[in-house]
């Protein structure tokens, strides 16, 4: 009788998701929190230099500490996601023979995109160094950025889907959709903000170069003038 009541609950879709489990909502909160955290902290850093000021002007240290916090929050989020899946129902369709090989392929591809992105960008490029004024010398165009835009986000999303498929958990697929949605929203703010950082830096560099050229021209002797102090006086004619 208890089982029948549970199955008829509006918060349970048999074989799909059990919304009564607190672990599911904790995972939802973690997935939503992480991009919100790093965007708020990074944009505040760009505008106010809060972390850099607290650390006595050491912006690289500030970036590394932010990187550590983002990386740690990512590990916590992944752990909470896995805990949530353990309390969710499985579905027969996701337990067929072809599902696990597909999951393994997605997981390998997703992690390849993530790790190769980190390798190409470095720590400061990966973890919002440009918000600290640590800019990339040029746009990275090699792998995996020549395959897709934002490979770290989409590679991470692929890994979420892969784990859900591996354990046969439809609820994991729902959470993966949330991951994609949250990343998509984050990019709507991150991409124009980051583009503006580099646009402002380019304007600043051009202005500095123009001022330098103007200073050099003002210090140069005018054309056609003579340095009279170095002239040798001519002898008077007899």
Describe this protein's structure.
It is an enzyme of class 2 (transferase). GO terms for molecular function: phosphatidyl-N-methylethanolamine N-methyltransferase activity. Its EC number is 2.1.1.71. The chain crosses the membrane at residues 24-41, 61-81, 101-122, 134-154, 160-183. The chain is mainly alpha-helical. Helices cover 67% and strands 2% of the residues. The chain has seven helices and two strands. It has helices at residues 2-7, 22-48, 50-54, 59-86, 99-126, 151-166, 170-219, and strands at residues 12-13, 17-18. It has a two-stranded antiparallel ribbon with strand order 1-2. A hairpin with a 3-residue loop joins strand 1 and strand 2. It is elongated. 21% of the residues are buried. Residues 1-6 have low confidence and may be disordered.
Summing up helix and strand content along with how strands pair, one would put the structural category as mainly alpha
Number of strands: 2
Nearest-integer average pLDDT: 89
Q: Uncertain runs with pLDDT below 50, 5 residues or more?
A: 1-6
Oligomer: single chain
Global Rg: 29 Å
| Fraction in beta strands | under 5%
In what order do the strands lie side by side in the largest sheet?
Answer: 1-2
The largest β sheet comes out as:
2 strands, antiparallel
What is the N-to-C succession of helices and strands? HEEHHHHHH
Estimated helix fraction: 55-70%
Terminus-to-terminus distance: 136 Å
- How would you describe the shape? elongated
Q: What count of domains describes the coordinates?
A: 1
Count of helical regions: 7
């Amino acid at each position: 009788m208890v089982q029948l009541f549970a199955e008829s609950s509006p918060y349970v879709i048999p074989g799909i998701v059990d919304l009564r489990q607190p672990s599911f909502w904790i995972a939802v909160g973690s997935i939503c929190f992480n991009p919100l955290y790093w965007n708020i902290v990074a944009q505040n850093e760009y505008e106010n230099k809060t972390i850099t000021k607290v650390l006595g002007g050491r912006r690289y240290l500030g970036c590394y500490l932010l990187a550590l916090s983002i990386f740690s929050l990512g590990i916590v989020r992944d752990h909470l996601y896995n805990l949530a899946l353990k309390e969710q129902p499985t579905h027969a369709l996701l337990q067929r023979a072809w599902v696990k090989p597909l999951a393994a392929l997605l997981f390998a591809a997703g992690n390849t995109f993530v790790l190769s992105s980190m390798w190409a960008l470095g720590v400061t490029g990966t973890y919002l160094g440009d918000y600290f004024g640590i800019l990339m010398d040029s746009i990275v165009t090699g792998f995996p950025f020549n395959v897709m835009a934002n490979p770290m986000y989409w590679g991470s999303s692929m890994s979420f889907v892969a784990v859900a498929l591996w354990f046969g958990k439809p609820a994991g697929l729902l959470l993966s959709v949330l991951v994609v949605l949250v990343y998509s929203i984050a990019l709507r703010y991150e991409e124009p903000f980051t583009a503006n950082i580099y646009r402002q830096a380019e304007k600043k560099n051009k202005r500095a170069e123009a001022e330098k050229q103007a200073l050099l021209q003002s210090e140069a002797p005018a054309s056609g003038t003579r340095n009279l102090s170095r002239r040798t006086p001519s002898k008077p004619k007899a």
